[in-house]
Write a structure and sequence with these properties.
Layout lengths: L1 E5 L4 E5 L2 H10 L1 E3 L7 H4 L6 E3 L7 E3 L3 H11 L3 E3 L9 H11 L7 H13 L1 E5 L6 H12 L3 E5 L2 H14 L6 E4 L13 E5 H4 L4 H4 L4 E4 L7 H8 L7 E6 L9 H8 L2 E3 L3 H6 L6 E9 L2 H7 L4 H10 L1 H13 L3 E6 L2 H12 L6 E4 L5 H11 L6 E5 H4 L8 E6 L6 H9 L11 E9 L8 H15 L4 E7 L3
Length: about 475
């Protein structure tokens, strides 16, 4: 027999026989990514695994209760769940409560469904793509609970953006405290919403988190395991917890950890459905495969990954192609790169004095300046924005982007979908967004080069998301 009991708002306690506890320990353990390279593993201090069930204390993250039930069914063990049951909350009640909030905009059907599901469950991981309106769902939940709520986002830009959104949704009725570097963590007694980044609060003591009735974590896929657990394990008295993400692939934190901290996954809507219903701009993908001369391919067959990257981003003909492509496009164009000094700055320099307004941002760019640039672009019609993927691939509202150019190779599903999302928001007069996915064919005989493999992985992502793409082959000089 396995009995699950409530321990606090982070953990549940399991009563079972020692032999079953051993099985549970094995079931809820996993190797950490890259564990073989970590000093503790190399020095034989640690076996490379994280164990989510503690055999000594018999504690496990509360969000894994459904997984424990599945475990018991598979082994024909009797299962008793003494933890809290779902909160009864109908769609009729949801519509009534949202109407009473007097929001500046009405929620879409799937936003209403997500809001209702979250209230029924009290803890949930909501899977919803970029531009689906997660911030409105978060705000409605904040208003429903009506007490101090902690909202955690990955970047300073998104802190400022969340403040702007919440003020807009609530017509400025909320007292919001935004925590960034240098801002006090002492909260005014009248403040009901606190918005911050991971970095700003991870050192705060457990007692600091006791003041929050609810915690909402946006873009939860960005959180590393240590950062996420370090914060969420302190929320032992916070009953309502919700994580939001666009995808569970390539997630930095193991999915079992996130499920444990927030609860089972609920998929809200797909990008394909959003496009079909007109909530986001239709997407056209032009996959451009650059083909190199034979003598270049032969040499590239000996390259290590770093050598190949250096060759690609430093290739003058390739960078000239990107420059000419950007100049030929109508509307606002976002060029995303990964490497600041050897690629981003080079592309930016090549576009200076080109006849269009050109803007640049990377991790080195001050947060206020990034926000200023974003606001400027939202008012222009024919500019070029050269930005690092880490700076503007996530979350930032850029509705007037008509074209996105992938200037650097990647195979990360999260990064690909987040980057595409920058161009999918609707704006007046915008008919669609076009993604130019630039890839490099340096394969020699049976050998496929690294970044070509990354390109094929992106094609798989597009197919899974039901994005239509066309392939173009372009010969390029060395």
């Amino acid at each position: 027999m396995v009995t699950v009991k409530r321990y606090n708002e982070v953990y549940s306690k399991i009563d079972c026989e020692p032999s079953i506890a051993m099985e549970l320990s094995e079931k809820f353990s996993f190797y950490v990514n890259g564990y073989r390279y970590m000093p503790a593993y190399r020095n034989r201090i640690w076996n490379g695994k994280i164990n989510l069930f503690n055999r000594q204390t018999r504690l496990i993250y509360s969000g894994l209760v459904e997984e424990i039930e599945k475990f018991c069914k598979e082994r024909d063990y009797e299962f008793i769940n003494e933890t809290s049951v779902d909160h009864e909350y109908s769609l009729h009640e949801a519509v009534r409560d949202i109407k009473n909030m007097e929001l500046s905009k009405d929620p879409r059907d799937y936003q209403l469904e997500a809001y209702t599901h979250a209230i029924r469950k009290s803890k949930a991981l909501l899977l919803s793509p970029t531009a689906s309106g997660k911030s409105l769902i978060i705000y409605m939940l904040i208003r429903y609970y009506g007490e101090r709520t902690l909202v955690i986002v990955p970047t300073i830009n998104l802190v400022k953006q969340a403040v702007k959104h919440f003020n807009s949704y609530g017509n400025g009725i909320d007292d919001i405290h935004a925590i960034t570097a240098g801002i006090t963590k002492q909260i005014n007694i009248h403040t009901n919403i606190v918005i911050t980044t991971w970095q700003s609060i991870y050192k705060q003591p457990k007692e600091w988190f006791d003041q929050f009735k609810a915690v909402m974590v946006d873009e939860v896929h960005h959180a590393k395991a240590k950062s996420l657990t370090g914060i969420m394990e302190k929320t032992v008295n916070t009953k309502y917890k919700f994580g939001f993400t666009g995808t569970l692939d390539d997630i930095q934190t193991h999915i079992m950890v996130i499920t444990g901290l927030f609860g089972p996954v609920k998929k809200i809507v797909s990008s394909a459905q959003l496009m079909k219903e007109g909530h986001i701009a239709p997407l056209k993908i032009k996959a451009i495969l650059l083909e190199y001369p034979e003598h270049v391919k032969r040499l590239a067959g000996t390259y290590k990954y770093s050598d190949e990257i250096d060759y690609i981003v430093g290739n003058k003909a390739r960078n000239r192609f990107i420059k000419n492509l950007a100049l030929s496009l109508k509307g606002n164009t976002l060029i995303l790169f990964q490497f600041v000094d050897k690629h981003g700055k080079v592309l930016h320099d090549s576009l200076k004095n080109c006849g269009k307004n050109v803007y640049y941002a990377s991790g080195e760019t001050d947060g206020d300046l990034r926000e200023e640039i974003r606001n400027i672009i939202s008012k222009e019609d024919n500019c070029i924005f050269v930005a690092s993927s880490g700076t503007f691939s996530t979350g930032a509202d850029m509705p007037r982007i008509n074209n996105v150019i992938f200037a650097s190779p990647t195979k990360s599903k999260i990064k690909v979908l987040q980057s595409i999302g920058r161009g999918l928001r609707n704006s007046p007069g915008k008919e669609h967004c076009t993604l130019y996915d630039i890839a490099d064919d340096l394969s020699w005989k049976k050998h496929q080069n690294y970044t070509l493999i990354h390109f094929l992985a992106r094609m798989k992502i597009y197919a899974e998301e039901r994005f239509v793409y066309k392939l173009y082959r372009v010969k390029i000089k060395a």
